[in-house]
Every structure is written in structure tokens, then in C-alpha cells.
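Checklist before submission:
- one chain only
- standard amino acids only
- sequence pasted in full

Submission:
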Amino acid sequence: MVELTAQAIHEVDPTATVVAASSSLRPFDRNSQDMEWHTELFKLGMLNYIDAVSIHPYRYFDPPETHIDEYESLRELISAYSASARDSLSIINSEMGYVSTVNNDQSVLDDQATYAVRSMLMDIAMGIPVSVWFTLWSPREANNDSYGLFFTDTTPKPIANALRTLTGNAGRAHVCRAGRRIQRGQLGAGLRGRRADRAGFLDN
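Returned file contents:
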């Protein structure tokens, strides 16, 4: 199916970027089947027909730094099965989010904002070129209001203001790496001073 779909897309637009498989990438110590499923897809040759591997690395209440091991393992798996395919493929974060709870407790609202910023910075530090947040806002009856950047009446949550501040500052910064592995929890703590010892942002 991926082969036929990719061919059909490229017949219409040869420059189109085809991604798959929009799958979960949850912590391996609790969900080893996620990587097993990716392995089976790659064995079937999926990497020959796509331009990037898309994932939905939801963490619920776990910090975003828990992405590190899964990103690295997925990259290794891609390299192992893409030797006969095209050059190394990117990983795209095509959907993720943190809840602020239906009751929108202020402390949880602040946690959602903090984790959103750390998630975006984590992806940048790990070389993930695209990060998509779920969701802008949703009707209350859809039970997704707790994920949104805005309340159902369109007033911004703390997460909206936090991401606006991030994008405003990121335009004047560059990623710096010291060549050492990022440790879990370290990036978020380091970024409080806009400087991280091992990966983060520095003003130009």
C-alpha cells in the first residue's frame, strides 16, 4: 500500500514529501511492541518509498526528555534498513501533545506550557525538523479541549503564550552542541537560563 500510494503521489507532484507511518513511539520499557512494529515495516521495504518516518511520541505525564532513547533507537533502526534505500531519512514528529486536564487546574496548565516548550527544544536539539502540536483547540464535546493551545472560547492558555515566546526568541538563537549525549531532564533545567551545557540555545 505504501509503495502504490507513494507512486500515485509522486505522479501528481514529483516534489511531494511522503511520510509514514504516523505511529506511536512510547517508552520501550513499557511498550517494546512499538519498535517491533517499525522493524516489521522496515523489513517489508517501506523506507524505499518514503521521504521521512513520522511518529506520534505522546508522553502524557512523562517529561519530553524521555524521547531521547527512542529517537536514537529509531535512527539506528532506520540506518540498519536503509542501506539499500535512499540516504538517511529524517524523523518527523507529526503529532504530540500534553494535556491540561478538563478542569484546567492552573498548576497543570503551567506544566503543559513547560512541557510544550521543552518538547519543541528537545526536538530541535535531536535534529527533528518538524514538530506538530495537537491541537489548536477543539469543541468541548470532543473531549480534546485539554490538549489545545486555546480554550474553547479562543482565549489563549499559558501554553500559547509560552510557544509564542519561544518562537520569538528562537529566531535570534542557534543550536549549539558539545558533542556529548544529552541526559534526561538536563535540557529542561539548563534552558531556564537560556543556556544548556550539552544542547540548547545561545544568543548570536
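Reviewer check: The longest strand covers residues 90-96.
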